[in-house]
Amino acid sequence: MRAEHKGERRPSALPNFDDCLSVDRPRLRRMARDLSRPPRADERAAAQRLRLQADFDALLERSRAALLARRAALPVPDFPAELPVSARRDEIAGALAAHQVIIVCGETGSGKTT
Q1: Are 87 and 106 in contact, with CB atoms under 8 Å apart?
Q2: DSSP conformation class of 21
Q3: CA 50/CA 68 separation, integer angstroms
Q4: Minimal CA–CA distance to 84: which of 67, 103, 108?
Q5: What is the pTM of this model?
Q6: Is 89 exposed, middle or buried (0-12, 13-18, 19+ CB in 10 A)?
């Protein structure tokens, strides 16, 4: 039998919010945790819970939309065929996968920064 430690974390049933901005994730987790607790019976608590649910839904939607917009705005890599370095693209990618640092030498205008 294994003793439980006080600082041990239990698996959580709360979502991980991978489809939201990382800056919003802690607040969303906190709000989701608060919403997962059993509701209290008084009227004031019910109003607070409704407000919390509305705030949670709004933040979740806004955060997901912002992440989608950010991902859509990412530039698409372009490797013009007329640049000499583009012909060695696969070789350079393999070297990058195998080594932390590589040095690419070539003439000015050969596309090294591409």
Answers
A1: no
A2: -
A3: 27
A4: 108
A5: 0.63
A6: middle
**Number of Cβ within a 10 Å radius of residue 51:** 10
Tens of each residue's pLDDT in the chain, 114 residues: 455 555 544 445 678 899 999 999 999 999 999 999 998 888 999 999 999 999 999 999 999 999 999 999 999 988 888 888 888 889 989 999 999 999 988 888 887 776
The two three-digit tokens of residue 82, written as one number:
């007329």
Burial 8-43 (b: 16+ CB within 10 A, else e): eeeeeeeeebeebbeebeeebbebbeeeeeeeeeee
Q: Which residues contact 83 (CB under 8 A, 6 or more apart)?
A: 110, 111, 114
